[in-house]
């Protein structure tokens, strides 16, 4: 048995062992409605329930935002997890042993294939320590006074489970030792460190001392690590901010402070606000801005952007207004461009950071919210700055153009790149010839601002695929999963279509064509799909295709009869005949002027026969 087959069967075993209604019910209040259950969609804001779950089909579908899929899709989307981590989490829930042959990546915020017992113990220990620090906060007036000065709301303090590490060197060490906690695990997590004294009272001492403590949760709400801020700088040792060291469950480049608390709001607004510090997050939350997260004492990484893109399309950055904050914003912009994301930026007045703005300005909330409404892509703000700088003279213009073109060289979106090139050309009164030379010199792509697009190319492109699923294609997809013996029906109808027509040819939407082709190539082929279509609506299925099929299956729609499905196929077949005709005409055009009369006559006859066929079909279906 191959590893791929084993993996597929193992995943299916997990899906068969879990009721999707139970999993969804952990996040959504569901009410029975006929054979399904309904509730408020967790992926967008709504007042009237439009989210439906089918226990029979083991699928979900939202009639509002069109989200849909199987239980793995749901766990991935609601928790922002990778496919492998979602599967591992469900395996744990179903108490299904992970086979050695099943090798998948390990998510730093969750559990992995190896060291499962250590990771479970580590999370449990961190939770115990977080409770210890939380209790310390209640017992420390100085820590409470410090937080009060930071103008934090009690609700934010509670939701983020803030704590306090006292100034003693062995307070946590004593607590862990007394509680028989695994000291080796605590040391590996960096909660305690081995003492270097000759005759220490304890073998270890505490990492966090005299600090407000911020538990850092992973996307599933488990305590992955801690951040600490000194409350009395004088007489204290160590940096102002201190984080847990990297470990199996804590990797700063892949964790975001506040994500667990913010993910619901990020989904609702389809936007995440990224700030630099813990207190920036807490201040914004206290001000009513809940879709906010922060990096954990490290620079923004590609992994951070991948995580954020799972929750919302728009990423808006509010970094400090000082030089370091400006540099960080610029680095983030370039990282986003390389990752295919255009990040937005917000400039706060007087170079203040969000925490300072809200704590020192009585109108801080209003200023912040107004600033957020005026956010714009960082790349556009930077381009405007360079255009203004270019007015200082020829040398300034040269440097500005070099800088802007170096940024655009990292721009992944060709349309967005071209729009900005046109903008620069117009703003700086540059010729197309000059811009094209710059494009070539700076090696930022093969596009030309003055390149004509031939009509003939347009015609060919039109037949290469569409960017969205048409209504008739949606009807065809429904017919595929709701019509009995659809394969036999297809074989009967195919004889009336152009030679060598395939089922995927009925679609213009490229992801649908690719999906059907891949289904045919799998073991069991399309017959396996038609028997249990709900098993093929996982995360790899295109969103639009999945939305149509999930809705049809969850709602348990009915398709009248085979005649209905036959009509749909034949109507879509008219487009195949049009393409077939177009292909013959292209061959005729290519032979124009060539000395091959016999082939021209043959193609002309074939072309006229096809035109006649098309007219008959149009008369019948029109």
In short:
With 622 residues, this protein is α+β, with helices and mostly antiparallel strands.
Describe the 3D structure.
The structure is a single chain. This protein has 622 residues and is an alpha+beta fold. The protein has five domains: 3-94, Zinc finger, CHC2-typedomain (DNA Primase, Chain A), CATH 3.90.580; 116-250, Alpha-Beta Complex (DNA primase DNAg catalytic core, N-terminal domain); 256-374, Dna Topoisomerase Vi A Subunit, Chain: A, domain 2, CATH 3.40.1360.10; 380-442; 462-621. The protein has 27 helices and 17 strands. The protein has a six-stranded mixed sheet, with helices on both faces. Helix 11 (278-286) links the parallel strand 13 (271-275) and strand 14 (292-295). Helix 11 (278-286) crosses helix 14 (354-360). The radius of gyration is 30 Å and the shape is globular. The two termini are 53 Å apart. The model is unreliable at 1-6, 103-114 and 452-464 (pLDDT under 50).
Secondary structure layout:
Layout: H1 3-17, H2 20-25, E1 31-33, E2 36-39, E3 51-54, E4 59-62, E5 68-69, H3 71-79, H4 83-94, H5 116-138, H6 141-149, H7 154-159, E6 163-165, H8 171-178, H9 183-188, E7 192-194, E8 204-206, E9 211-217, E10 223-230, E11 241-243, E12 256-257, H10 259-269, E13 271-275, H11 278-286, E14 292-295, H12 302-309, E15 314-318, H13 323-338, E16 344-345, H14 354-360, H15 364-373, E17 376-377, H16 378-390, H17 394-408, H18 414-427, H19 432-442, H20 455-462, H21 471-482, H22 486-494, H23 510-521, H24 525-531, H25 543-554, H26 562-590, H27 597-621
Parallel strand pairs: 13-14, 13-15, 15-16
Antiparallel strand pairs: 1-2, 2-3, 3-4, 4-5, 6-9, 7-8, 9-10, 10-11, 12-14, 16-17
Helix pairs in contact: 1-4, 3-4, 11-14, 14-15, 16-17, 21-25, 21-26, 22-26, 26-27
